Amino acid sequence: MGSIQEFVQTYSPQSEARIVFAWNGKHAAEFADENMVFRQSVCDYFEANKEAIPLPLIAALYNAETLFAKEAWGVNSVVSELAQELLERGGINYIDAYIAGAARGMDAYMESGNIRLSQARCRELLAHCQTCVENGSGSDKNRWGMFVARFSHLLQVSQAQRTP
Description:
Layout: H1 4-9, H2 36-48, H3 55-72, H4 78-90, H5 95-102, H6 106-112, H7 119-135, H8 138-162
Helix pairs in contact: 3-4, 3-5, 7-8
């Protein structure tokens, strides 16, 4: 089976089966996710060693944890750290994965917004979302508009923190 460190170091898309949200389809006391314990161990390792975690693994963890949030009716706080690392390191290459996770209910939406990004990254993501609003229509336009608001706010916060 191997250690968590070994899993992280050798991670590939084929390894994802060990961390995906593997839900039994039930809620409340009967709720079960057969990968939850191992995935939580990988998330704990991530929290202590962010720089050692490859972006595809961060994306897979974020995906699994936001799916978990939707069905478990609650969210693990690691979602914000995963979201932050995903966007700061991955930028617009990972914006679709970020938005898909954030759209998995209010808990995931709120926790995925509890992030801090560099001004440069905020500007990049904001410009991308604004372009998507301009080119979108209907609900797609509204969805991108929510993230224009989010990245505008994050940019303002980032700028305020730099101002003496």
